[in-house]
Amino acid sequence: MKYYSTNGKAPEVGLQEAVVKGLAPDKGLYMPGKIEELPQSFFDNIGDMSFQETACTVAGAFFGEDIEAATLKGIVCDALGFDVPVIQVDDRIYSLELFHGPTLAFKDIGGRFMARLLGYFIKKQGRKDVKVLVATSGDTGSAVANGFLGVEGIHVYVLYPKGKVSRIQECQFTTLGRNITAIEIDGTFDDCQALVKTAFLDDELNKKLVLTSANSINVARFLPQAFYYFHACGQLAKSGKAKNVVFSVPCGNFGNITAGLIAKRMGLPVKRFIAANNRNSIFCEYLQTGKYDPRPSVQTIANAMDVGDPGNFARVLDLYNKSLEEIRKDISGKYYDDESIGKIVKDAYNKTGYLLDPHGACAYQALKDDLHPDETGIFLETAHPAKFLETVENITGKRITVPDRLQAFMKGKKQSIGMSKEFVEFKRFLLEI
Ligand SMILES: *Cc1c(COP(=O)(O)O)cnc(C)c1O
């Protein structure tokens, strides 16, 4: 399969190059050259398939031309050895729980898949010192760092905004050591993302080093996020609830929802999507006004969605040939400020007993506000509430039990390198290590 750049000014490349490079040389994002519709037989059986089985079929449609079936199956099964259950929360509203992986957030899925695919390609090329640069607003860093921990030939540099991630999130990538280095940037997530992007486009760095990205701009992280949309529909189909399905997705960099839009092109039986935002509501405004007005992100209690210039917006535009009208047919937007998010978490807990995290809360409420009587809603619960312990405990006034695998991270010693948001400093660091 060939991958093209959303900017259309770079040559098409194969999967290996798209994965190793991350970003296209014209600053565009790689898109699959064709999006294959899955056969009816797949949809007939999807309710009886495990998450791993569904993921293998969808992975085959994306990567089957480029990777031998047995290898691909090995990568899928090794990366995704956990379930993504669909739980009923409210009348016609279901939670797709994506937090059962090792770092308790949905980014484990893309992060772990990508680590294994990149590891496979690097081994094949006989390369040794590949540097993975990743900017994180909280959860990407932990999922990617843990996904790559101990993968030979690869060193990961996690850039995160100082003081803007939760303590648990920080522990998950600053305590690992080995081939993982955490860099604490005096700035915002957008500054971190800008440093990473600039590094990829810097001639000198690219001549001297092999750099790649693990942000959702990388197709190996982006595409696997389509897997669970199919599995969720399968779960609902099993209980006869799969009519007029609406997916509500808590959005930051828009990788997750865009993978859902791709799944729809592959035949996913979904009616429409809702993009749920916090106060960083750039996309909601775009839907309303037709103007895309990126700006610095503001800090909220749903911090993994604090993105002021969503990287995957380019992919959304590309999928719909830049037609606002077409985009509006498939996606609507809702956004909530911190005060509302607090109230949503509290009310849902009191009414249903289900504890939302601040991100999933936005997506849940968007369904409460927007679901039509003939529709069934699934919101993506993207992280375990214990990852935002203080916030959620303050809201509900209840103590949360922290899962063991999360507690284990908190025992390590924080190791990180502090840096300004100036590119020259980051560049010097990369050249000297
Ligand atoms: C990253 C993240 C999001 C946003 O996902 P995007 O793919 O960047 O839109 C939402 N919720 C949580 C918990 C996250 O970690």
Strand order in the sheet with the most strands:
3-4-12-9-10-11
Which small-molecule ligands are present, each listed once? pyridoxal-5'-phosphate
* CATH topology group of the domain at 85-103 and 222-400: Rossmann fold
Q: How helix-rich are the residues, as a percent range?
A: 40-55%
Number of helices: 20
Q: How large, in whole angstroms, is the Cα Rg?
A: 20 Å
* Number of strand elements: 13
Strand content: 15-25%
CATH architecture of the domain at 85-103 and 222-400: 3-Layer(aba) Sandwich
CATH class assignment of the domain at 85-103 and 222-400? Alpha Beta
* Gross geometry: globular
Termini Cα gap: 36 Å
Average residue pLDDT: 94
Query: Which stretches are poorly predicted, pLDDT < 50 over at least 5 residues?
Result: none
Largest sheet: 6 strands, mixed
* Class inferred from helices and paired strands: alpha/beta
What this model shows, in words?
It is a single chain. This protein is α/β, with parallel strands linked by helices. The chain has a domain of 198 residues: Rossmann fold (3-Layer(aba) Sandwich). The strands form 3 sheets. A 6-stranded mixed sheet has the order 3-4-12-9-10-11, with helices on both faces. A 5-stranded parallel sheet has the order 8-5-6-7-13, sandwiched between helices. Helix 6 links the parallel strand 5 and strand 6. It is globular and about 60 Å long. The two termini are 36 Å apart. The chain binds pyridoxal-5'-phosphate. Pyridoxal-5'-phosphate (PLP) binds next to helix 12.
